[in-house]
Design brief:
The chain is an alpha+beta fold. Helix content is about 25%, strand content about 25%. A hairpin with a 2-residue loop joins strand 1 and strand 2.
């Protein structure tokens, strides 16, 4: 499907919203075609006959750029649309956090109160606060299993979570915890007397005028719901394992359209729910003492090309999602995909679109095949300043990279001695050679930074 622009005055909003150094330096009438062409290039990897994505860019709450490419049902040949509904996984956490902060605004809880007030029988409840659950510093572990297809209510979730030893003492460390947000769902139910998703609808989504984000259960008939896909061990398109939507709970049980997600952050930042002051609480990085953590309250603070943002990823069997919100420009980008193994990640696509909209696009790379000798010449270990190593190796004729003992990622060879991450287009590696042409170090350009981090090659 070709890219479409909404019926509003796109030029007006593009011109008004861009920050200094970006699109405001040119007339909006001249900028729009170039911006659209750049966006088309970013989404061009989405194939019409495969699972794809629905994408929305909004400014000041108005959609200025929308597209949907790929198929909602590969089997039936049904295309995705900008109104297609996707499972959004952990983007749910943003709504859950906003619900907790709205309950605080109503005087029904305090973030620094221990959860023993509502869940007195939960192990170590008097040592865990709501704030620690929100910021993933509670130590509540995800190391428990349940049959994916088995329906499970909040009480059943709590029983399994309670029986699992903590990862660490509350407030002493950080680890992403879905279980922590499931506990928040239980607290929401205790306070409101409603199911967590009904409370989130009534306290946050409905007051903000967002009906596209909702809980859709296993038996619900959902108009426009996209089918989810994955890849099997041979890399062929497949359907994901059967699972119940009751399982993810308040950590990941909602579904949405891309437009609903794009408007959510604008609404949270500018509306009365949970309020501007409390939204600032959400986007501020949490801390343990003086150590700043990689999470706020239901959102991930960060930067794109030096501009402060908040973002979040979501993943559930058959689906991946990502949003980016730029507070200084009131810019939202939402990318929802109906595959959990896409050619291009929604995070990469959302960040690249946001950078483009800010007038600070990421560098574009030109792929080029390298000889076997060139690839072998890169293989080795590279010391990361401050500790750790990057390992590059050749597997099946392609270069792969991993940090220490972490998961390996495929690299794409490009011109100018550049390696990029497959399906990413943001981070890249530039090779540094001696006078004889041998690779002696790499420059690792995190988030496409102009200046890379030098990592010296270690002796074999």
């Amino acid at each position: 499907m070709a890219l479409r622009r909404s019926a509003i005055n796109v030029r007006k909003f593009l011109f008004a919203a861009m920050i200094g150094g970006g699109l405001m330096q040119a007339h909006a009438q001249e900028v729009l075609p170039a911006w659209t062409a750049g966006a088309e290039a970013i989404v061009s990897s989405l194939v019409a006959t495969s699972p794809g994505a629905s994408i929305v860019v909004s400014m000041h709450g108005h959609e200025v750029y929308t597209t949907a490419r790929g198929r909602s049902s590969v089997e039936l040949g049904v295309p995705l649309s900008t109104t297609s509904v996707f499972r959004i996984g952990s983007l749910t956490k943003t709504v859950t956090a906003a619900t907790i902060l709205e309950l605080q605004a109503q005087g029904k809880l305090d973030l620094d109160t221990s959860i023993s007030r509502w869940l007195p029988s939960f192990p170590r409840a008097d040592a865990i606060t709501i704030r620690e659950l929100l910021s993933h510093t509670s130590g509540v572990s995800d190391a428990w299993d349940a049959p994916l297809a088995e329906p499970m209510d909040t009480a059943a979730q709590l029983k399994l979570i309670a029986a699992t030893p903590p990862d660490f003492a509350a407030g002493t460390d950080w680890r992403y915890s879905n279980s922590g947000y499931m506990i928040l769902g239980a607290i929401i139910e205790k306070i409101t007397g409603k199911r967590w998703f009904d409370a989130e609808r009534d306290l946050v989504l409905k007051p903000l005028g967002i009906s596209e984000i909702a809980y859709r259960g296993d038996a619900d008939i959902v108009p426009g719901l996209a089918s989810g896909y994955t890849k099997d061990e041979q890399g062929s398109l497949a359907r994901p394992v059967l699972y119940s939507m009751t399982g993810p709970g308040a950590a990941g049980g909602l579904s949405a359209t891309a437009g609903g997600v794009a408007r959510l952050l604008h609404a949270l930042a500018t509306g009365s729910i949970p309020g501007a002051g409390r939204f600032r609480q959400m986007i501020r990085p949490a801390r343990i003492g003086t150590v700043e953590l990689p999470y706020g309250l239901g959102v991930v603070p960060g930067t794109i090309r030096g501009v402060p943002i908040v973002e979040h990823s979501g993943g559930i069997e058959g689906f991946l999602s990502h949003y980016v919100y730029v507070p200084s420009a009131d810019l939202s980008v939402a990318v929802l995909e109906n595959s959990d193994a896409p050619a291009v990640s929604p995070r990469s696509m959302a960040r690249r679109l946001a950078a483009l909209a800010l007038g600070r696009p990421y560098r574009r790379f030109v792929e080029m095949a390298w000889t076997a000798e060139q690839r072998e010449g890169v293989a080795g270990k590279y010391a990361i300043p401050g500790g750790g190593v990057h390992v590059m190796e050749v597997r099946g004729g392609s270069l792969w990279i991993h940090r220490d003992n972490g998961p390996a990622k495929a690299l794409v060879t490009s011109v100018d001695d550049v390696l990029t991450y497959a399906g990413d287009g943001i981070d890249y590696v530039h090779l540094l050679r001696d006078t004889h042409g041998a690779v002696v170090a790499i420059e690792f350009h995190d988030d496409g930074a102009e200046r890379g981090r030098r990592e010296v090659r270690l002796p074999r």
